[in-house]
Design goal:
Zn(2+) binds at residues 288, 293, 295, 301. The protein is an alpha/beta fold and 364 residues long. The protein is built from twelve helices and 15 strands. Helix content is 33%, strand content 23%.
């Protein structure tokens, strides 16, 4: 990992990668001793934050704890610099540009944010048996929902003599999403990723196990990040624990965010993403006879007609139905979880249905 530019002025925000005018304006209400930073990793009770020229540890203010606002990797935050006691407190999370989250079916059912302010997400797939259009559709749905820009990266191009065939196959479902063939191993084609891994831009990677995410990250550095990734520190009990940083600065000033939560991202609550990933079905569906057509057996269904005529693949429509059903199941689970929470919160109290509704609206 390249060393950070040494800067004696901790208030110099311009060296924080990704800092832009919108953040500058959001931060303008704060004066010394408040400073800005970006979350590098999150631990049980403290956060590592990149501030101008260095990485520090910070706790969370009581106010943020009370409202349950927990900064995540990639967040830009406001810190109170308590110089006299050599400590930093995170007092605010600046507005998020994009937000990668997964719908959690836990008791509190809050959507769990995994990472924030990612500009581009590389959906990594590999030639050979990992190449699965249905899986790419699933990733596109999640990525679109986050607000980040998807780019499909076909890795292990060195293992086939026909990489363009695989690229063309992916293009049939990708719409205007770029599809780029590379070999992380030989570093061929990495230059085509430069548009996205640009100074101040933040990238994350998703894709199934073994497609080459770590190999690609390492290739983007000249040295292995894995070696510098782990840092030893003392936990509260005085033992040494290994903590892992999740935000890396690339030699060219770009940023990569990587953690298991992002790698294993689930569908969650991505209805908006589904509409974007299946742009062609949505467009054709406007011509269905019934407004609430489910594109199954209904008469006058334009989607079924497109399948019969061969302009949309049947497998793609099946995939759309499957993901739609999964999302419906997920929101039902969320609903059940909410009801359970309501019961717990209002146990023994008389609560009007109106109050319950209000509470539910707030919880989303
Ligand atoms: N031939 C070839 N092999 C590659 C390429 N990229 C990665 N590999 C190999 O694929 C295997 C898996 O690569 P990883 O980088 O560990 O995959 P990953 O996506 O990080 O896997 P997880 O950590 O399980 O998510 C390793 O043996 C790599 O050497 C490539 O471009 N070409
Ligand atoms: Zn229809």
């Amino acid at each position: 990992m390249p060393s950070l530019p040494i800067c004696s002025d901790l208030a110099d925000k311009t060296t924080i990668p990704g800092w832009d005018e919108a953040l500058e304006s959001a931060f303008s209400v704060y004066k010394d001793p408040y400073i800005a930073g970006r979350i590098v990793s999150r631990h049980k009770t403290n956060w590592e934050v990149l501030i101008s020229g260095t990485i520090i540890k910070a706790g969370l203010s009581g106010a943020l704890l009370r409202i349950g606002k927990q900064p995540v990797v990639g967040d830009f935050v406001v810190l109170l610099n308590q110089e006299e006691i050599n400590s930093y407190i995170i007092v605010n999370v600046l507005p998020r540009k994009t937000c990668l989250s997964r719908g959690a079916a836990g008791d509190n059912n809050e959507e769990q944010v995994i990472a924030a302010n990612i500009d581009t997400i590389f959906i990594i797939t590999a030639t050979g048996k990992d190449l699965n259009l249905r899986r790419i559709e699933r990733y596109l749905t999640v990525v679109y929902a986050s607000g980040a820009k998807p780019v499909i990266v076909l890795n292990k191009a060195d293992l086939t003599d026909k990489p363009t065939e695989a690229v063309d196959k992916i293009r049939t479902i990708a719409g205007d999403v770029p599809v780029i063939a590379i070999s992380a191993l030989s570093k061929a084609g990495l230059d085509k990723l430069e548009n996205y891994i640009a100074p101040g831009k933040t990238v994350a990677l998703v894709g199934s196990s073994g497609v080459g995410k770590s190999t690609l990250i390492n290739a983007l550095f000249d040295e292995s990040v894995q070696k510098t990734k782990d840092i030893r520190e003392d936990d509260e009990k005085g033992r040494h624990t290994t903590t892992v940083r999740q935000l890396f600065l690339l030699p060219n000033g770009g940023v990569i965010i990587d953690n298991p939560g992002i790698r294993e991202i689930q569908l969650g609550d991505s209805y908006d993403g589904l509409e974007k990933a299946f742009f062609d079905i949505v467009r054709v569906a406007e011509k269905c006879r019934f407004k609430d057509c489910t594109h199954d057996q209904e008469p006058g269904c334009a989607v079924q007609k497109a399948v019969q005529e061969g302009s949309i693949a049947k497998e793609r429509v099946d995939s759309y139905h499957k993901l739609n059903a999964e999302l419906a199941f997920q929101s039902e689970k969320t609903e059940i979880g909410l009801k359970r929470l309501e019961k717990k919160k209002y146990k023994g109290m008389q609560v009007s249905p109106r109050k319950l509704r209000e509470y539910k609206e707030k919880s989303y």
